[in-house]
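During the second year of the project, the team shifted from modelling isolated chains to modelling whole assemblies. The rationale, set out in the original proposal, was that interfaces cannot be judged from single-chain predictions alone. As a representative example for this report, we include one of the complexes processed in the last quarter. Its constituent sequences, exactly as entered into the pipeline, are reproduced here:
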Amino acid sequence: MQQKKGIAILGSTGSIGTQALEVIEAYPEHFDLQIITANKNADLLIQQAIKHQPNTVVIADEDLFGKVKDALWDHDIHVYAGEDALSQVVESNEVNIVLTAMVGYAGLKPTLAAIRAKKNIALANKETLVVAGELITKEAFENGVNIYPVDSEHSAIFQCLVGEFQNPIEKIYLTASGGPFRGFSIEQLKAVTKAQALDHPNWNMGAKITIDSASMMNKGLEVIEARWLFNLKPSQIDVIVHPQSIVHSLVQFEDGCMKAQMGLPDMKLPIQYALTYPERLPTNFPRFNFMDYPELTFEQPDKTTFANLQLAYDVLEMGGVASCALNAANEIAVKAFLEDRISFLDITRINSETLNSISNIQRPSIEDYVETDILARKIATGFLG
Ligand code: NDP
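Output from the structure prediction step:
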């Protein structure tokens, strides 16, 4: 009998985190849930802890420590609070894989701590690679750590590469649904609302990534993520709009062969594959029916109207801390948009103006990333108007 894998889920109360718990619950013989964490949603964290009985829970917001501790006092569960605790608990000897399902820059430090503790990473938190891809991939290599992608496009590429590790990639195509505003002009985008931006046609996700999908920033972040995960040049990464979200991405090899990975859009599949690789476990997820999709269509992305996608290519060319600054500006802008403080098109404006205001640092250290993040947030906040 194979040993169970000890799992830590950072961000168990989010969209990816809750789906990961469903996956883990379905295979008790494969997984041993060790750690779950949340930022502020103490109620759901407590419910999850009582149901799934992990070894440890962490609530990042220290003010909520008492509430979580009291609720779990008669369970054999360790309770910690605070940002630093996130980085400490992942070092536990019982943890084999850390699923980084928290949103935003906050994922960077615990992911780095997990890598340094030689834990394999199931990476949903793409912002970690966007902020510090150079450092993270170097540390993962030096510590003999594997990073298994959870993002459906990167999981697709990863699955296409199984058995192909000797064969160089000529190019990859990341597919994009195009989001709720596919085909819109700048004029039309001026009038879009938050409710429209949050209404993604194919995927049900957390608020930040849903807005990023509407602005095409998500695809831009994925281009940067792919650059680091698969060690590619920007010119080897292409984006193709595929509104049905059935082809999850494609790899083109040097002989011209293209491999695609397909299936119904369901994040549980890439989450599960990241946790069970190289094994595939049977599931009862709904199956794809060709007759439901008689047409799969593909279009060029509009990088002029959706300039965030172009910004992602620009920061890859700039290197250094440029993509860290872009990520910080985007987090500030998306938060302000969700708080009804700016319009949809302001997101791209703030991203672009922040990038133009930052001085780049090549071959950055972790401190350079941290300082750039702080500075870019300050600059972006100034541009909110
Ligand atoms: P959600 O907003 O649904 O969940 C975010 C999780 O992170 C919650 O558990 C939240 O806790 C926690 N969290 C938020 N801020 C902090 C913080 N400062 N410190 C500690 N924990 C924090 O996000 P998603 O699940 O949608 O996305 C998570 C990551 O996965 C993102 O990086 C996203 O880009 C990526 N991803 C998501 C996909 C999806 O389908 N949702 C698809 C592919 C990638 P709390 O509930 O307490 O706020």
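The mean pLDDT is 97. The first strand starts at residue 5 and ends at 10.
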